[in-house]
Design goal:
Blueprint lengths: L1 E7 L12 H11 L3 E4 L11 E5 L2 E7 L1 E3 L11 E4 L12 H10 L3 E4 L27 E6 H8 L3 H9 L10 H13 L5 E5 L6 E4 L2 E4 L3 H5 L2 E7 L7 H14 L2 E5 L9 E6 L2 E4 L3 E2 L5 E17 L2 E16 L3 E11 L2 E8 L2 E3 L1
Parallel strand pairs: 1-2, 2-4, 7-8, 8-9, 16-21
Antiparallel strand pairs: 1-12, 3-4, 5-6, 6-7, 10-11, 12-13, 13-20, 14-15, 14-17, 17-18, 17-19, 19-20, 19-21
């Protein structure tokens, strides 16, 4: 399997971002990501998808959409949609219809920033997801960088520190969101895939005679990412590469990562039984016994969870192995020490043992 680094959920001048697509692509190449998925608000920008090449490095830019109901007085209920070719924002007032139309178009749907606190200091409202009657969505945005900023920056000194030194701010997905995800995994009749989004805007603000850009695209692309596992590397043929990326995301063949403290490339979470090796997002029979294995790129604090509860953990380890015959939803978390704090580093999608 190949590993591709995906930066997703970002905005350009077509909605409320300050950058053009070419600028995002250049930033992505510098940051070392393989795929960008741009999601402007309620607009599906056409004729943008393609490759940017620099030496041997190739970046694939794809275009999705962040859809929400502009007529709602409440706000929130934003949905990330990937893999469609037709504008879907007209269905935004009816979120179930929006999900159904996206599925009919072969697209995947992720509920954006399920918990998003207000930030009164900067007149920022909450944009929670509140419509939990919907069914059939692909997954949720488990880790949203800007939502974490809002939660952890409720005073001016903290906001200033986190704006210019984001490494001090990023601790992990919000505990509320992790708890919600485990509940959804246990109660929904379908897998719920977790992705991580930068929610990048790269806004520029005046500061006396100067202008200051808060969270430049490159800075964000070096931090919160989604790593996908694919059967092969990018080929340069856009239709097959596009399909491969979206299939990996929809299947949950991915993990959420904070690449800022240390690169997470090389992390693996697999399960072996008599039928072979299974990856994140896969279903596996527990009848004959299972061997779960977690491999961290460096020595770290590794936790294996079953149905939302820790069943095994170890500190200062690169490998964690667990033998079991128990069915359940198994996922893993990896923590790392960085800048004086014990921080969330990697959050895998589950392997479903049945």
């Amino acid at each position: 399997m190949e590993e591709l680094i995906v930066a997703l959920h970002m905005h350009t001048v077509y909605s409320d971002g300050d950058g053009k697509h070419a600028e995002l692509a250049a930033a992505g190449l510098k940051a070392g990501v393989d795929v960008l998925i741009v999601t402007d608000h309620n607009v599906l920008v056409s004729d943008i998808e393609g490759y940017t090449q620099e030496g041997k490095r190739r970046l694939l830019m794809l275009v999705g959409e962040e859809v929400h109901d502009r007529t709602s007085p409440v706000g929130g209920n934003h949905m990330l949609i990937f893999g469609h070719n037709l504008e879907l924002s007209r269905f935004a007032p009816n979120r179930q219809q929006l999900i159904d139309q996206a599925r009919s178009a072969g697209a995947s749907t992720f509920l954006a920033h399920p918990f998003d606190d207000p930030l009164p200091l900067f007149h920022e409202k909450s944009f929670d997801w509140t419509d939990w009657d919907v069914k059939g969505f692909t997954g949720i945005e488990l880790w949203n960088q800007m939502s974490e900023f809002k939660t952890r920056s409720q005073t001016l000194p903290k906001a200033a520190l986190h704006a210019f030194f984001p490494g001090f701010m990023m601790l992990s997905p919000l505990e509320r969101t992790l708890k919600l995800w485990d509940e959804l995994l246990l109660t929904r009749k379908h897998p719920v895939v977790a992705v991580a989004g930068v929610d990048a805007h790269a806004h520029t603000y005046p500061a006396g005679p100067f202008k200051v850009q808060v969270y430049p695209y490159e800075t964000q692309f070096r931090s919160i990412t989604t790593h996908i596992m694919t059967p092969k590397a990018l080929s340069g043929e856009i239709n097959s590469d596009r399909r491969m990326v979206y299939e990996a995301l929809s299947a949950g063949h991915c993990f959420c990562a904070n690449d800022l403290p240390h690169p997470t490339r090389g992390f693996r979470f697999t399960c072996n039984n008599n039928d072979g090796t299974f990856w994140m997002g896969d279903r596996v029979s527990a009848d004959a016994g299972l061997t779960f294995q977690v491999r961290s790129p460096i020595r770290a604090h590794i936790r294996l969870l079953k149905d939302g509860q820790v069943v095994l953990e170890a500190r200062d380890r690169e490998v964690l192995t667990h033998l079991t015959k128990e069915p359940g939803i198994y996922r893993t978390e990896v923590y790392i020490d960085f800048r004086g704090r014990h921080r969330g580093w990697i959050f895998s999608n589950p392997i479903y043992a049945v």
